[in-house]
């Protein structure tokens, strides 16, 4: 493996695992990531194309990248759709996981779609099939950047959807932990 790609994998690992505070990017253990890639769980040949304001297209190619779903974070590349379950225990977030074939209606299954709109902005749609409103800790990564940065977001109401927009190029959305919110807090964005 070339040193440049190894450095990119290590930096990616730093982006995605143990959630600490709402504005701290989740991290991934480097050894765990390496083992996952050896087992074929990583994504390979990831190509992201972003239209820039001047009409140019910026392309990012990553030969080997982290899995979309890790226990403490999700990674959605521009143009991808992802479905994930937020597991809670006594109203405390425990982990992200892939949905099972016949998922219990008690579990919060979230659908994510990250796309570029006709005007060039980046749009995220999140649907919450669960029974309670959920606030997500979101981070966006620009094309070519090694790290993501925290971005504000609105909670996703139970049985509803929320849309987030960015006017700048975004190659990847990283979702940290999920937080259950009360109905009163379901409309408070930050």
From TrEMBL:
Organism (species): Pseudofulvimonas gallinarii
Keyword Signal: yes
The name this protein goes by in its record: Uncharacterized protein
Signal sequence annotation: 1-22
Keywords, alphabetical: Signal
